[in-house]
Known about the structure:
The chain is an alpha+beta fold. Helix content is 14%, strand content 26%. The chain is built from nine helices and 35 strands. β23 and β24 (519-525) form a beta hairpin.
Amino acid sequence: FFFFFSPSSSAPFPASPVPLPACxxxxxxxxxxxxxxxxxxxxxxTVGNIPMxxxxxxxxxxxxxxxxxxxxxxxxxxxxxxxxDKMDNPDYWRTVRDKMTGADVRLSDEQVDLVxxxxxxQFGDINFKEYEPYIDxxxxxxxxxxxxxxxxxxxxxxxxxIEKQKVGKxxxxxxxxxxxxxxxxxxxxxYYDLWAQEDPNAxxxxxxxxxxxxxxxxxxxxxxxxxxPEYLLSExxxxxxxxxxxxxxxxxxxxxxxxxxxxxPAFSRFIHERFERCLDLYLCPRQRKMRVNVNPExxxxxxxxxxxxxxxxxxxxxxxxGHTSLVRSISVSPTGQWLVSGSDDGTVRFxxxxxxxxxxxxxxxxxxxxxxxxxxxxxxxxxxSVVLLNPALxxxxxxxxxxxxxxxxxxxxxxxxxPVQWAAPAGKEHDxxxxxxxxxxxxxxxxxxHSKGDYLACVTPDGGSHQQVLIHQVSKRRTxxxxxxxxxxxxxxxxxxxxxxxxxxxxRHVRVYNLIKQxxxxxxxxxxxxxxxxxxHPGGDNVxxxxxxxxxxxxxxxxxTKPYKVLxxxxxxxxxxxxxxxxxxxxSGSDDGSVIVCHGMVYxxxxxxxxxxxxxxxxxxxxxxxxxxxxxxxxxxxxxxFSSGADGTVRLFT
Length: 654
């Protein structure tokens, strides 16, 4: 091993286990550019070319020639000391750590230049001439004497026997016809038929793909020089023909009459028509499209027959008469024995379903927009817009238990401010069945119960207010506003039948809220202009919405936020939609006076889509003031449907 000294500096390079190339040192020593001394240097670390990470967990880094351990230098610098050294030490950038000894080595200027040259891809020696003058060994001048005076070999002027044998074999092959001489090239141009190798029986054969040029229409009577009188245009027809666009005219010319053929002048549009004919020939597509012969009946989906989907309502059985104005809302008791209806005449009527007899009439003092019977069979309460009624029908024990539940309320010690005032009527109102009054700031458009029968949701549509939806708890007489700000004009709301979800329908969207997490779960796009009504499937995974633009949209909540199916069976606006609790049926009522009953089967298999089949159109309501059916609802246990209309009647279809 040796040290290499530069003439400009006496600083030695670090000792390296790899010697410098001898040729470089020898050349530099001959030229006198440097002084090189070959001395035996004691390499301190004798571990060899091994990864120094092996000594990472030991206090030493190797062994010297005597076999003694070379201990690591004490390095007690932390990151802060390292940062300060980096900021204060001007030689920090040229200080490197020697992995063999663990010591810090400061690079000299020559060593830094060497590193920079190597990084740029240059030679390590600064004096090495990369492009030295080239000395050509063979000069361009012709010399008299040869370069070498070597005598020629004997084989250079004696015929070769091996070549003689090869030539003989080639001659024999040519005689036998095994090797044919190359033919002279034919310089004449050659032409190829692209369709010469085409299969004539192919479907896409050229003769079968031939499209003839479009033929011109044969001239008719209107093009005659003496056409019949009925082909000549009057002055009004001429004026209308001139005002039309050229592409809208049936004839491209005006029929004229001449006395003889000699009097016919030259056609003024002759060149123009020839040009259009050339365009027709030039722009005619020369490709024949393969049409698939499909039977139109095969494109219609195979639907089951309605008789295979029975039972469903088909016949009008009863008509409940008594209201003198529009019957906007109806509801059926959970036992299926009683029916309640609310009308614009300010009365609420209770009917016995089986006989059609009006059992009770309650005057609430204003138009009734919505009624809802409590779905809990153990409670006999009916929500009528702003009043809770006990009709006192059915089981007396249930009626008395309901009155006891309402009267057992005790006011809390600290009264809380609520958006709605609760009041318990007395006197004649109590005797008429009034149990609780709820003073809303606006008119109530819809009321709906939770499936357990304790919570009641009311909708008071007001675009500028955040109190459009209010939820009441009857047992504690408490009212809460679930929304801080309005998301649009609320049309209707509904509770999920089994899970803590709340459906809110605005004009174009249906939002599904999680009542426990108090967050928006889904936002359904109805793809209609204005939602009018909504119903939730008893399973809870499907929703139908009716709209004023004659559409009924079915949503599959597990599938997507867009409608699974859009039905356009009605000709006018839809006013009400409803699901049956036990049968796979749903119905829709419209201003066209009809109720359409559809079969809607929802399968337990999530991979199978719901089956929707219209089965019956029920008619019977008379259209009054452009209004037809205003509400529909199903019987809780029988495949019967009730409908209320603008003609003041309620009809039962069984």
